[in-house]
Amino acid sequence: MFSFLSPSSIESIHNATLRILSETGVGINHTGAREMLTSHGARIEKNRVLLPPDLAEDLLMLFGELREKALAEEERPLAVADRRARHDGGAGRDGREL
How far are the Cα atoms of 3, 12, 17, 37, 61 from residue 6, in angstroms, in the given order? Predict the structure, then answer.
């Protein structure tokens, strides 16, 4: 895979992001999300959720796994049907089977 950034640059950006999430945090208004994150070690400070680096890393891994699963599901062939197909025996607008 081609990358404009060197591995050390990527690591520097990643570490800076972890520091920002830990020291500055993010605004999350959803009460359930805030409760879930604080139950796993996040802190609330001045209406911001501060994520310790280990929690941020865990979430990154989880989101990566969920993304991969979603992408795998997208690759499944989709059944495409013309809305008129149910009325003309399954043929599309041009008369071909869909």
Answer: 7, 10, 17, 32, 21
